Amino acid sequence: MNVSEHKQGVVPRLRFPEFRDAGPWEKHSLADLENNGWIELGRGQVISQIDIKEHPGPYPVYSSSTKNDGLMGKYGRFMFDEELITWSIDGGGDFFYRPKHKFSVTNVCGYLRVYSSLLNNRFIAFQLQTLHASLTFDYQFKAHPSVIRKLYTIHVPSLLEQQKIADCLSSLDELIQLETQKLDALKAHKKGLMQQLFPREGETTPRLRFPEFRDAGPWEVKRLGEVYRLIPTKSFSRERLTYNSGAVRNIHYGDIHTKYHALFDIERERVPFIVGLENEFEDDCYCVPGDIVFADASEDLADIGKAIEVVNVGSEKVVAGLHTLHARQLANNLVVGFGCYLFQADSVRDQIRKQAQGAKVLGISASRLKLVRLLLPEKEEQQKIADCLSSLDELITLQAQKLDALKAHKKGLMQQLFPQEISA
What we know:
Radius of gyration: 27 Å
CATH superfamily of the largest domain: DNA methylase specificity domains
């Protein structure tokens, strides 16, 4: 089948100048392309972590994860040594362009092999990413080859135009990867710096101190219950929350895990209101600067007891809600802005994890949280540490925003560069 033999399609909203008079793109379902021998759709093989452990080696294994380009591990065997397109079958995932190298894909991945010299692999991969982003796959509605071959229709211009689009988007991907590396480097720098600025388990002085505090002596040791009192919280489900209007805002444990900054500033956080329960709170329940709010439940041990410190609520009334623990200083021993970093320190996080209880869902109680051992320097040193780390956090936030803007630009550009069509 030649492209010219198939019915004509549409033109994208955005086109490079040299192709604006080149005519419409041709329309092809993946099923048609496969039936005519232009492509092949297939599925990977079962490869478990046990297999990888028993057959170690240098060859990548790609699975259904969207993290790290879907890399599951390295293997001593490989299925492919060619240019392919792969995608996640379970849970939606994404399409990935795989340049020629030795690798494997698991049974929860599909692969697309291009046979026709009239198709550019990278161009097809980018177009399928655009189509895939408009649908929601889950563990019931899976992206099996038998599903997407009927579901997706791609539009094909000349090979030269395909190459131009692929080169453009590949350059943008390279920039995104570079900015991602910068963000990862900033996060790694912060992690390493915190390991130096806070004492290790069993020690009372940090390995790194600002010059003016090097002779200040060891940090004071206290239990959390000696520094903070725990304020009772009320549990409100998501059904009680709205972003429209209300008198009291509510900090939800899920937002601590996923949304809120470690230094909680009401002016930059999107915090919902509680509906219809404004009169149920004592004045003591409202968050004030210096308060710590912990997420007391998580399925992931790494996240249990994750904390934010309230640094600004302005004129808003804010309470800690579902699955949170609300801690307030007893004697103002900590400067505002230091607490959140204290509760990010490895020695404190490790203690909180050890205090967690539960099977599938882990939780930590107020009584167990009070047992956590804290190490506190004088306020002047606290302020210096807080200023240093908050400045670094600002850099991380700016870099994350820059990366998000690049990703949004790529998404918008792809929507302009590709006509989109999903079969009913």
